[in-house]
Write a structure and sequence with these properties.
15 helices, mainly alpha, 0% strand, single chain
């Protein structure tokens, strides 16, 4: 037995809480986490592309159906710190497997929903899975690969988000139009089951370290630049989801597009988001402030374009694609910002804070957007998106991160 192997064995036998250094980058496990993000984001945003038929089938308004997003976000905000704390003594891979099982259950429940109450139950289950998964993903990436490969690992994990934005909306709209909206959720459940199989095979034993606690969350939240980052997250996410949740309804009513064209526009949104993720990752290596500021600014510009020229099908399509590109860069910029401000022992706590605030912002955006849609029309939700994201960009330009922060 080599000296390094003996050291690893000694750590396992004598200190089960101590992390076991990998013999090399665990890329299979990283890819399985990317598949997890794909499944979660797909399930989370399917209602966006299925909002109209889902609401019609359940006999509810579009505003009420949009609150399915709210339920997931609220529970996600609660579960992010809760799951991290109550599972602090469990092997991290066991927790990840459990979150994927909950994802499958949520998709199956949604596919069989016969009322708004059942649909919301499915979305609550999804919220638990989403909050638990995202609160630990960055911390796990730090343990699966050497530190110098962390940006690459995070890019791979976040690629799952980008691919989901490419696939979820257009495929959901297309499949829902052909076989019904329920079939889209069943397809998502099948994909989540395949993800669980890959995770069972690839994720190594990961004893808990640097466990999150309410005290550690408070310590990280006191960091000045973290406070600014969380405010930006709140503005960008609430602005984005207030508008994008009702984008299908906007496209149906303002430029009056048919289902096939809407599917193509949503596909453009997703593809643009994929390239936005790549561009954000590359730009972040040179200027984190540029990524964190330009992404919300472009969302604001896209929202204003929809308000001023949205009656044109071409203008709407271009604006939605630009919106997708901009939001694709948002997770890269914000997550990198948070990770750089926390020492390794605080990585999970930083992840918990980011997920919690992000989910609160989604809920706030969906609720406020729904109220605006019900009382002042769809364009009012788009207007709020423009204002919130512009304010976020302004904050970053004025007091955002530089090379040292």
């Amino acid at each position: 037995m080599t000296q390094s192997a003996a050291g690893v064995m000694d750590a396992v036998l004598h200190d089960p809480e101590k992390p076991v250094p990998p013999s090399g980058p665990a890329w299979g496990a990283v890819i399985s986490l990317s598949l997890g993000t794909f499944g979660l984001v797909t399930a989370e945003f399917l209602p966006v592309s299925l909002l109209t038929p889902l609401a019609d089938d359940l006999g509810i308004s579009e505003g009420a159906a949009g609150q399915a997003m709210t339920a997931t976000a609220i529970v996600g905000a609660i579960s992010a710190p809760t799951v991290a704390i109550i599972t602090k003594r469990l092997d991290r891979r066991t927790v990840m497997w459990t979150m994927t099982l909950l994802l499958i259950l949520s998709d199956v429940l949604a596919a069989g929903a016969w009322s708004l109450a059942v649909l919301l139950t499915a979305r609550v289950v999804l919220g638990i899975a989403l909050g638990g998964f995202w609160s630990m993903s960055a911390a796990l990436a730090m343990r699966l690969v050497p530190s110098h490969l962390l940006p690459r690992a995070m890019s791979i994990i976040l690629t799952g988000v980008s691919v989901a934005t490419v696939c979820a909306a257009p495929i959901g709209a297309y499949v829902g139009d052909i076989w019904g909206w329920r079939s889209a959720f069943m397809l998502a459940a099948a994909g989540a089951a395949a993800t669980l199989l890959v995770q069972l095979i690839t994720i190594p034993r990961l004893p808990p370290i640097g466990v999150a606690s309410f005290r550690s969350l408070l310590d990280v939240a006191k960091i000045p630049m973290v406070k600014i980052a969380l405010l930006v997250v709140l503005l960008v996410a609430s602005g984005h989801f207030a508008g994008i949740t009702y984008i299908r309804a906007f496209l149906e009513k303002i430029p009056a597009l048919d289902v096939e064209t809407i599917s193509l526009v949503l596909l453009a949104f997703g593809i643009s988001g994929f390239f936005g993720n790549l561009a954000g990752g590359l730009l972040a290596e040179y200027s984190l402030k540029a990524v964190a500021a330009l992404a919300p600014l472009l969302i604001a510009i896209a929202a204003v374009s929809l308000l001023t020229a949205g009656a044109s099908a071409l203008a709407s399509a271009i604006a939605v694609a630009a919106w997708g590109f901009a939001f694709g860069a948002v997770p890269v910029g914000l997550q990198t910002w948070m990770v750089r401000r926390a020492v390794p022992e605080q990585a999970q706590s930083a992840g918990v804070l980011l997920v919690t605030v992000f989910q609160v912002a989604i809920a706030a955006g969906a609720i406020f957007g729904g109220l605006l849609v019900e009382n002042a029309g769809i364009t009012s939700a788009i207007a709020y998106s423009a204002v919130a994201t512009f304010v976020a960009a302004l904050i970053v330009f004025l007091v955002g991160p530089n090379r040292e922060t």
